[in-house]
Write a structure and sequence with these properties.
Structural class: alpha/beta
Helix content: 10-25%
Shape: elongated
Oligomer: single chain
Strand content: 15-25%
């Protein structure tokens, strides 16, 4: 494979004919991204000497001038082998895009990200010159259903060869505009819409994307699950990327996956994760039923899943985390205290805590632990070891700690302790 990589080299023209002939002969991939090309005539010269090119990257060159205004003395070449065209951040016009697609009749993948497209302008497709390739078929782009710019039927074309379209980072805000892409590219298999501020997916628009197998909607403005749910009408969709959308912010990562798995029965992979198994889908659908069983207006998918799995009782909330505190009662003479103690405190820690509360020096205390329900069987256990932690006594809420003075000091006044 012969590559010609001139990325970020300050290229602003094609150069002389002799150099082009030597440089481009037999080249299959051309990378001219991040240069200073602004004239389609110069690009035309390069391509005329690279008839075998299958990959062309012109990203981040300023190419806003319409390609249709190319020098009449120079014929833009057909690109019969070009399969991938990258035009990211070029400010390219729609008229230029349609022109290039007409010339590249085997193009399977095109990148149009970051070109500030808010609409898909199909006006240039109303009529095509006579040299339209056979693979570009004339058809109709009807706007009667609200997917066009007027109520009149527009003559247009369908580019059946295009399979992948990257449209990320464009300010398109309507799913109707996305539907236009489906009409123009009826064989589309992948569509990238990450970073496009689309607020909702519509059932009507999905009918024009019937062959779509994967889509990226990450960092869009989908606000709630009802605006994601119509994706189920993309009957060929098996892979979805959807991260950073407001509709899923309230869920944990695990819950987000569960909700999407339950809502979209045909999708097999989400956000590049593991393939969805039959068991995972069933678990997700059951969790979906339980999640929305008590909501006033559950999603339509809830009714469908309830018809499959029936009514499901809520799961018991089992706390598997180890207990870190225990609420116990402390008894000394006529004093009764109730305290929440860390189970990681030692016996010595407990004495230090009780010293100011009971007015007894910790060196003169004897502590006894008891479970009131089992005291008649096991009696009280003296807490003899200063560094033994409370959890080792299996201390639980409601247990008791009894405090006694050491035998030789029981009859001595507490305030004479240090005399």
């Amino acid at each position: 494979m012969i590559l010609q990589i001139l990325n970020d080299c300050g290229v602003d023209s094609a150069g002389d004919e002799n150099s082009l002939e030597k440089t481009c002969a037999g080249v299959l991939e051309i990378d001219l991204a991040h240069n200073q090309l602004t004239d389609w005539n110069e690009i035309s010269k390069i391509l005329q000497h690279a008839p075998s090119a299958s990959f062309l990257n012109l990203s981040f060159n300023s190419l806003e001038a319409p390609l249709s205004l190319i020098d009449e003395s120079m014929e833009f070449p057909f690109l019969p082998r070009l399969s991938t065209l990258i035009l990211i951040g070029t400010k390219v016009s729609w008229s230029s895009i349609w022109f290039l697609l007409r010339k590249a009749n085997t193009l399977a993948e095109i990148h149009l990200s970051l070109n500030n497209f808010s609409t898909i302008d199909t006006s240039y497709l109303k009529s095509f010159p006579e040299d339209t390739p056979q693979q570009v078929q004339c058809g109709s782009l009807s706007s009667d259903s609200g997917h066009g710019s007027s109520n009149e039927e527009e003559d247009g074309v369908h580019f059946h060869h295009l399979k992948r379209l990257m449209f990320d980072g464009n300010p398109v805000t309507s799913w109707d505009e996305v539907a236009k892409l489906g009409m123009i590219f009826p064989s589309l298999r992948h569509l990238g819409l990450a970073g496009c501020p689309i607020p909702a997916v519509t059932k009507e628009g999905c009918q024009y994307l019937e062959n779509l197998e994967s889509i990226s909607l990450s960092n869009s403005l989908l606000q709630d699950l009802s605006q994601i749910a119509p994706l189920c009408y993309l009957h060929s969709l098996t892979e979805l990327r959807i991260q950073g959308v407001p509709a899923l912010n309230e869920f944990t990562a695990h819950e987000r996956r569960q909700v999407l798995v339950a809502m979209l029965p045909r999708v097999r992979r989400i956000n590049g994760g593991a393939p969805i198994s039959i068991q995972e889908r069933e678990d997700a659908e059951r969790a979906f039923i339980r999640r929305f069983a008590s909501t006033l207006h559950p999603p339509p998918r809830y009714v469908e899943l309830k018809g499959i799995h029936g009514e499901l009782a809520p799961l018991i909330d089992v706390q598997l985390k180890p207990m870190t505190k225990a609420k116990v009662r402390v008894y000394y003479d006529k004093i009764v205290l109730e305290r929440s103690l860390s189970v990681y405190h030692t016996t010595n820690d407990l004495k230090i805590i009780l010293e100011p509360l009971l007015g007894i020096s910790c060196t003169k205390m004897r502590l006894f632990y008891t479970n009131p329900e089992l005291e008649g069987v096991f009696g009280r256990e003296e807490m003899r070891f200063p560094q033994k932690q409370l959890y080792s006594y299996n201390i639980q809420d409601g247990d008791e700690i009894h405090v006694d003075l050491k035998t030789s000091l029981q009859n001595l006044p507490i305030n004479k302790e240090n005399q």
